Amino acid sequence: MQNYSTSKHAEQFVASIGIPMDRFITQRQREFPYAKGELSQLLRDLGLAGKVVTLSIAHSGISGLEGLIGGTNVQGEEQQKLDVVANIRFIRALTKGQQVCAVISEESDELIDTNNWHGRYVVAIDPLDGSSNIDVNVSIGTIFSIYRRKTPVGTRPTLEDALQAGTEQVAAGYIMYGASTLLVYTTGYGVNGFTYNHTLGEFILSHPNITIPEDGEIYSINEGYADDFNDGVRNYVRYCHEKRFRGRYIGSLVADFHRNMIKGGIFIYPSTRQDPNGKLRLLYECNPMAFIIEQAGGIASNGIKRILDIQPRGLHQREPLVLGSTNMVNQFMDCIHQNYAPETNSEVEFIDF
Ligand code: P6P
User: Fold this and answer.
1) Ligand 1 and 141: CB distance under 6 A
2) What's 67's domain CATH number?
3) Ligand 1 pocket member 323 (CB < 6 A)
4) Residue 159: CB atoms within 10 Å
5) Which of 84-88, 190-194, 288-292, 318-322 shows the lowest per-residue confidence on average (mean pLDDT)?
6) What is the Cα–Cα distance from 133 to 236, expressed in whole angstroms?
7) Which is nearest to 292 in space by CA: 248, 324, 318, 322?
8) Which of 30, 173, 196, 230 ranks highest by number of CB atoms within 10 Å?
9) Residue 191's closest CA among 177, 176, 207, 206?
């Protein structure tokens, strides 16, 4: 995967604010000589589902869609009514679009076969991340990751199509449902953000070629788990206190991530007593956010490995996650490694940070 985010190539494609996402995608079709428009269609399908979910969220308080549905998902997490609605909407949009042969969803235990066996793509998705914040009107989001299938077109999709390293992503993005609905995505040629115009019913380019400041003063970590932190994490948090950095933690990954990418900052979800491998899922949370942050000029790691280099072992595999401004992540890694003796633990997949 080529990283064009900081190259001249990406700057050549900085389009003008105000153009519709459809025209932006078409203009950049030239970046994908191998594609015949399927990826563009796939991005439009995701945008369509995002428009529908925007309406569901906006009216949830008056349409009885707030609150718990009374069940749990495969993760054992309580499902909000809107979790289920969003899952249905995105799977239906991807299925009808016919570009996707399989979906990995936070809300579904197994790989979802869309019966589009001629579809050339696979999508990993968290249909509505941070949904526990719906009832208190905090920004939440959809996170997606797009891969080309590995198995032959026309055959049944398998786990080989799903368990691909993050470096194999052809696109990744999120839709944040907040003060405005914002769709941010990358295809490996920089990061661009589109604001939903309800009147036109279109996503309009509002944040061309997003780059993260290499330094920042915002740190995002749930200090409620401080007693679980190892010495390295504890030392870094102490460093942030000494520097009088600003603690900002909403408990909604998309919102914390987006703010830190725009302003500069670091997001950390370490291993905790409850989640020894970290809470966030590799395929549909860590990988897409890692692809985006690298394309914006930042870093994403699990404490020892680049997130995008991790070979997944399971659909819902969790990883510790640290990502954000280069200088801040490097300072964090210094704290972690000062408390780590690689020669005694070199075979581990990640530092238990
Ligand atoms: P905690 C939401 O449930 C989520 O998956 C992410 O959006 C968020 O960053 C994280 O969990 C918050 O977890 O344990 O701090 O409440």
Assistant:
1) no
2) 3.30.540.10
3) no
4) 15
5) 84-88
6) 28
7) 324
8) 173
9) 207
Judge whether residue 228 has pLDDT over 80: yes
Residue 200 Cα to ligand 1 midpoint, Å, equals 33
CB of 80 shorter than 6 A to ligand 1: no
Residues 6 or more apart whose CB falls under 8 angstroms from that of 332 comprise 236, 266, 268, 322
Flag whether 223 is in a domain.
yes
Verify that 197 and 247 share a domain, yes or no.
no
Could you tell me if residue 12 is inside a domain? no
Domain that holds residue 75: 21-207
Q: pLDDT of 137-192, one tens digit each? A: 899 999 999 999 999 999 999 999 999 999 999 999 999 999 899 999 999 999 99
- 67 CB near ligand 1 (under 6 Å): no
The total domain count for the chain is 2
